[in-house]
């Protein structure tokens, strides 16, 4: 799948309950979790990869492949 820009219509602080900075940090932390094979196994065992909402969220996170975001993924 190709990387996509974050949706300009994405939920703001009122909808999410967190600031843009907090959201950035939470999404980055979640990306790091996805690098853990044990966590991926847990997600698979609990059928998260069959959940359309979860799959859409993973697709949304592909914007981290863009250079201006990828530099934060270490």
Model description:
The protein has about 70 residues and is mainly α. The chain has 5 helices and no strands. The protein has helices spanning about 15, 20-35, 35-45, 50-60, 65-70. The two termini are about 20 Å apart. The mean pLDDT is about 85. It is found in: Nucleus.
Instruction: Estimate nothing, just give the exact number of structural domains.
Output: 1
What share of residues are in beta strands? under 5%
Q: Please bin the fraction of helical residues.
A: 40-55%
Query: Helix count?
Result: 5
- The oligomeric status of these chains comes to single chain
Shape, per Cα inertia axes: globular
**Average pLDDT over all residues:** 87
- The first-to-last residue Cα distance is 21 Å
Radius of gyration: 13 Å
Structural class: mainly alpha
Largest sheet: none
* Number of beta-strand segments: 0
Low-confidence stretches: none
Order of helices and strands: HHHHH
Main location: nucleus
Protein name: Mediator of RNA polymerase II transcription subunit 31
Subcellular location: Nucleus
Pfam families: Med31
List the helices and strands and how they pair.
Blueprint: H1 13-16, H2 20-33, H3 37-45, H4 52-60, H5 67-70
Subcellular location: Nucleus
Pfam families: Med31
Protein name: Mediator of RNA polymerase II transcription subunit 31
């Amino acid at each position: 799948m190709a990387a996509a820009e974050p949706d300009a219509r994405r939920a703001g602080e009122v909808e999410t309950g967190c600031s843009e900075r907090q959201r950035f940090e939470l999404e980055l932390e979640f990306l790091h979790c996805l690098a853990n094979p044990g966590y991926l196994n847990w997600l698979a065992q609990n059928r998260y990869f069959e959940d359309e909402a979860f799959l859409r969220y993973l697709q949304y996170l592909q914007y981290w492949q863009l250079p201006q975001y990828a530099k934060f993924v270490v």
